[in-house]
Amino acid sequence: MVGDGIYNENVNVSKPLTIVSFASTTVQAVNPDDHVFEVKADFVNISGFTITGSSKGAGISIYGQ
Questions:
Q1: 7, exposed or middle or buried, with CB in 10 Å at 0-12, 13-18, 19+?
Q2: Which residues of 24-43 are buried (b: 16+ CB within 10 A; e: fewer)?
């Protein structure tokens, strides 16, 4: 569970994981040339976020897709 707020991050997920926002949570890409969330594992759930700031990457990139 991730608390409310604005987080400046580029997040790499490399293991099965559930990432859930409490209510009003924004993840803003610190590096706009990269994905906000890059998923490199099976069984990953991401929900409840506003995702912004990726100009050349994706909001959520799924490895192998």
A1: middle
A2: ebbbbbeeeebbbbbbeeee
> C-alpha angle with apex 36: 60 to 4, nearest 5 degrees?
105
Whole-model pTM? 0.88
- Reported as a pLDDT band with limits 50, 70 and 90, residue 51 is very high
Would you tell me how many other CB atoms lie within 10 Å of the CB of residue 13?
A: 17
State the Cα–Cα distance between residues 59 and 54, nearest whole angstrom.
6
